[in-house]
Design a protein that fits this description.
The structure is a homodimer of 463-residue chains.
Chain A (H helix, E strand, L loop, with lengths): L8 H9 L7 E2 L2 H5 L16 E3 L4 H14 L3 E4 L16 E4 L6 E5 L4 E4 L5 H9 L3 E2 L12 H7 L6 H4 L6 E7 L5 E5 L11 H5 L8 E8 L1 E2 L5 E7 L2 H13 L6 E6 H11 L9 E7 L4 H14 L2 E6 L3 H22 L1 E4 L9 H15 L2 E7 L4 E8 L4 H20 L15 H23 L12
Parallel strand pairs in A: 2-4, 3-4
Antiparallel strand pairs in A: 1-2, 5-6, 6-10, 7-11, 8-9, 8-10, 12-14, 12-15, 13-14, 13-17, 16-18, 17-18
Keywords (chains A, B): FAD, Flavoprotein, Oxidoreductase
Pfam families (chains A, B): FAD-oxidase_C, FAD_binding_4
Family (chains A, B): Belongs to the FAD-binding oxidoreductase/transferase type 4 family.
Chain lengths: 463, 463
């Protein structure tokens, strides 16, 4: 439907340069090709016609007006650390990279907000607000690279969500350039506000398919005390999951509650010689950022022991805690090293079904003869079964994709969702319809049509 | 546009009775007239053709199918405690009261969720989850009457929002009967989930204009310790507002931070002889539900004193705290007694602008020669300037409406919103466009068109 002006990419670049500096429009095919992908495996990606790197809202408006005039699709990108292919280029598209719009415009300790451009890196914002005694919680594993715009596009999560929630809960208001180049302001900079439909939230997780976020008002919290962690070793994943349920049922509010299975532990040890206890079947990491974390950890240690933990090791210092978290943060990279390639599932189930999810995943790994490591934001029921495979082996690749899909089917069966925090992108688009049903798809398409009637924004993603 | 079958309400009632028990379809004009209004002043209300009180999802579907077939508008209602006229009937409409769908379907301490029908009263749910050691925070002043469905429709707030946020943050998933009678399930029952556009959040605050919520999955928290409060007396509203800024800037997280101005204090004393210090210009109430609330109160007391408080009185017991909160909860009723009628503004500004908001409101009261009492969720910057007037006096009524509007204009000027928690309804519909702008209105209308192409759901509300 969308005309792809393959015949004349030079004309497109020339028109874009009418509103952008020359160096902000890249058209060398060798360069533009390097913008084709995010970090997801098994996702098709096309060849961009041109890559633009605007620095102002007006420049983004010019890009969208040009795209609309020529009917050229636009694929917005942040740091391309996404895991679902949502930022993958389509053939002949304009890749709209927001990475140069990276200014923190305001930090207000009284109003507890930050106003930022989309290209601000998550960790840069986190450190900047820390200096004001404030805290921006969402912390995806890629936080040192990923951008706030990308976090908003994918509605990303992280390790601290079990206490502090996901990106969506921190987005108060947005400035968005629409497909036709007009500017929309949504939401607010106040603590509360209910004027009209919540369009702000509609953009969060929309993977750039409804408009281009060019400015965000983010909610901040006071910086909590530094967290202190413990590690508990279990002889079975089921026991570890039972401990998770007991901890949450007991009214505890950990700032982190993570699970690593034996495959993951071994992979981390192999890569980083961290000396994790790889004789155990599951390692649970819990942390508290309360005024008396040792007391909270003691209560949780007791619950872990009652649930069958073989050993519980509380960190005495923040340095020890950080080492444990470092192991967790390395998990995906370590699993990638096992066979060279991974497909990372992101199934979130009610935490009461976490044990069933882990058990089922182990059965799927056995059925397909594959290594599938699981690390999980256990307190949220958000698992990342990670299929390790050799992409050069066609049969193993096929089995990897089949097992990946079967894991999603299991998640839906258990009352869960196909994606807790990574988004749908290209990787899971066939599964979105299974989760939300035909009525849901129809209405979501209606929303898309309202915002992007020509279908130019990130076509082929979501549905 | 919508055919109003005034000619044959009997036919409508008969068709409705084909799918509902006889007693669930009320058509006696004396009875149906009593369903015309919510609690807002100055809002037009029409005469319903019929009132239906379904008990099942299927019955709601029958109502909507009938309405669609006959092109009859439908106005959904909860307890009608709303303050914006959002539940007011339109002429010839079906009033769809959800009050009989009042079952709590599930409470899960492990998953920290409740699944409820829309007619469950807020306080009933709160008490039910308390029995499981859980907490459902949103607590509008009408919590003993208002329903969860109404809370969702109006995105309502309450006293605890400063720490725990508003209704929207507790709605994980919804079952919604669409205008044409089809059933849509949105969202999830998991802690996290980002599959597709966030339609759940779109329904929160949509005032029944997009669909009929028939089931909600709500997030719960562990029950916190009981809160302990203090009262601080100030010689000026500006000093009280400065204290609010210092408290929030200082990283404190009160579970309540409320302000009552002199007019409000006097009104409460007049009504309930509570012995509040009505020689002061502003009373600040702060509370903490932490493990050591006395320590937090002491720190806040110090900040209040530094900001110029004439006296700071910490409650020693929960009973004393409750008495203070009781005074705050009585404020609107007490202000109503001043002149017989009130119009309650709901302007929320960045808390750094709270003093300007109160100062400006006092000037508006003087300009119009009116009594305007202000109570405020001060920690959120959410003010309720309450215009007291005699509805029998046409000139005073005119001035009341003008001052009410001028207060909203002031709020927008200060970077705020026309509604922090009461919604738009009929009362503020002309102001919504001023807040969200023409592009926002166009997109919101597009969303409405997607969900309700015939315009049957609560027509005339929002925009």
């Amino acid at each position: 439907m969308n005309g792809v002006p393959e015949s004349n990419p030079g004309h497109l670049a020339a028109l874009l340069r009418e509103g952008l500096p020359a160096e902000a429009v890249l058209s060398d095919p060798d360069v533009t090709a390097s913008y084709a992908n995010d970090m997801a495996s098994f996702c098709e990606a096309g060849t961009p016609a041109v890559v633009v790197l605007p620095r102002t809202v007006e420049e983004v408006q010019h890009v969208m007006r040009t795209a609309t005039a020529l009917r050229v699709p636009v694929v917005p990108q942040g740091a391309r650390t996404g895991l679902s292919g949502a930022a993958n280029a389509s053939d002949g598209c304009i890749v709209l990279s927001l990475t140069k719009m990276d200014r923190i415009l305001e930090i207000s300790p009284v109003d507890r907000i930050a106003v930022v451009e989309p290209g601000v890196v998550n960790a840069v914002l986190s450190r900047a607000v820390n200096e004001h005694g404030l805290y921006y919680p969402p912390d995806p594993s890629s936080w040192e690279q990923c951008t706030i715009g990308g976090n908003i596009g994918t509605a990303s999560g992280g390790l601290c969500c079990v206490k502090y929630g996901v990106t969506a809960e921190y987005v108060l208001g947005l400035d968005v350039v629409l497909a036709d180049g007009r500017l929309l302001s949504t939401g607010r900079r106040t603590a509360k506000g209910v004027a009209g439909y919540d369009l702000t939230r509609l953009f969060v997780g929309s993977e750039g398919s409804l408009g281009i976020v060019v400015r965000a008002v983010l909610a901040l919290r006071p910086e909590p005390p530094r967290q202190l962690a413990l590690a508990a070793e279990f002889g079975s994943a089921a026991d570890a999951c039972a401990a998770v349920c007991k901890i949450m049922e007991g009214g505890h509010v950990p700032s982190l509650l993570e699970l690593m299975d034996r495959t993951t532990i071994t992979a981390v040890n192999d890569m980083a010689q961290m000396g994790l206890p790889d004789t155990t079947e599951a390692l649970l990491l819990a942390a508290f950022d309360t005024l008396d974390p040792a007391a909270d950890l003691a209560a949780v240690a007791e619950l872990c022991t009652a649930a069958g933990a073989a050993a519980v090791v509380p960190a005495d210092t923040h340095a020890e805690s950080e080492l444990l978290l470092q192991a967790r943060r390395l998990s995906l990279t370590a699993l990638e090293a096992v066979k060279g390639t991974t497909m990372i599932d992101d199934v979130c189930v009610p935490r009461s079904r976490l044990a069933d999810m882990l058990d089922g995943t182990a059965r799927i790994a056995e059925k397909y003869g594959l290594t599938i490591g699981v690390c999980a934001h256990a307190g949220d029921g958000n698992t990342h079964p990670t299929v390790c495979f050799d992409a050069q082996d066609p049969d193993e690749s096929r089995r990897a994709r089949e097992s990946f899909d079967e894991i999603m089917a299991l998640g839906l069966e258990l009352g869960g969702t196909i994606t807790g925090e990574h988004g749908v992108g290209v990787l899971k688009k066939e599964w979105l319809a299974r989760e939300i049903g035909p009525v849901g798809v129809e209405l979501q398409r209606g929303v898309k049509q309202t915002f992007d009637p020509l279908g130019l924004l990130n076509p082929g993603k979501l549905f």
